[in-house]
Amino acid sequence: MANGIGYGGNFNGNFFDLLSDLIGETVTIFTTSGGQSGCGFTGVILAVNQCFVRLVTHIGPAPGCALGNACQSPCCPKVGCSGYGGGYGGGYSNVRSVGSVTDIPLDRIVAVVSNAV
User: Fold this and answer.
1) Which residues lie closer than 8 Å to 86 by C-beta, 6 or more apart?
2) Which of 17, 19, 30, 38 would disulfide-bridge 48, Cβ 3.0–4.6 Å?
């Protein structure tokens, strides 16, 4: 379990120590910037170095055909349809997301919110 401020961790007054204790935990980090980024970044801390913290902010989908078999298109459960983006059902959207990570400079962090437990 991660240790934070006041919980016996090795927080020595800097964000590097605090964030290093929180690797693998979900946090929200607020920065000095404005606009959409001023609302904070929520994700799982993947890595921390002396300059940046890296958050996984969106996890991509699992492989569609993980074993390399000839999987049938998810939008085409019936024979004779046209493949991705059309065909049977019409409601399937072929989203090609690989996920996202966010690198935040430590000197731009103003607050870190994490679970107390």
Assistant:
1) 75
2) 19
